Amino acid sequence: MEALLLSVGLLLGAYVLVYYNLVKAPPCRGIASLRGRTAVVTGANSGIGKMTALELARRGARVVLACRSRERGEAAAFDLRQESGNNEVIFMALDLASLASVRAFATAFLSSEPRLDILIHNAGISSCGRTRESFNLLLRVNHIGPFLLTHLLLPRLKTCAPSRVVVVSSAAHRRGRLDFTRLDCPVVGWRQELRAYADSKLANVLFARELATQLEGTGITCYAAHPGPVNSELFLRHVPGWLRPLLRPVAWLVLRAPRGGAQTPLYCALQEGIEPLSGRYFANCHVEEVPPAARDDRAAHRLWEASKRLAGLGPGEGAESDEDPQPEDPYSPSSPHPEEPTASELYPSPQSSPDLSKVMRRILVKAEPELQTS
To answer: Any keyword Ribonucleoprotein (predicted)?
Structure first.
């Protein structure tokens, strides 16, 4: 009996150590009031994105939930308005797998919203599921879509500077290795999916780095944020159904709740004084060093140029452009993947959302800043 009690005590003690050192997230204590400011959070209908949007709404921001599913997006907006007491939480349709949908969202947003102070790229996928595309779906959703959306919204970010762009990445970037000769090749099989996911997270880190360089002096700062190990839909979405009941209790014990996962993205969006760290990677609310592949400025610039091509960006749509973007015909030869409008683009338009059919550092870091320790 004594041995059993001792074993239980040791297990509990070990769990407490794991919880406070790996699971529990440090809270973000950034800007208290965001009244008069506007934020866009992609994938904000659930998980980390919803908790991020909730904290922004509680601080008084006007929050746009950019989500693929109209039903879930509208439901999330209703929930957040009720929970935050802030009625300026709205849904707008965005399908990052479709470049046409990204452009439609940008056109609708720029036509209806006079401000954009915070852009948080939270939406992402970890697997292609049963979908088979002629392109790398993981790279499209996790990097190319956010890359294009950032470029199209830059004019509004510039006019509202100081403003911020936050890209939710992952520690998986450490396993990424970009092959520029096969960057947009279709992904088939779980081994390729694991590799493609890590590659897309590395692309997130390199994108934030290069974006900081391209926007130096504009008042826009950019950060890559790792939410930590989070018990979210992304974790269980592609797990076989029979395995989920077994994994849920384990996930509840050793993974962060979505609220905890939202803290580092919120820190990057709200914390004052981190502007000199634009382009860096953050985890647990402090800056972290990244492996050589994630701080390779030549690779970052090469990815930038490749991403412009894959996103179908024209000469006047780079980071330096000050013009409001015009919608591009998705059937034009300049689009790398001409595509029919997907079902997720053909949403009906409720009164609370714009009608999309009608409104269409390097901060060159010669020497990296010292790592923060708190």
So the answer is: no
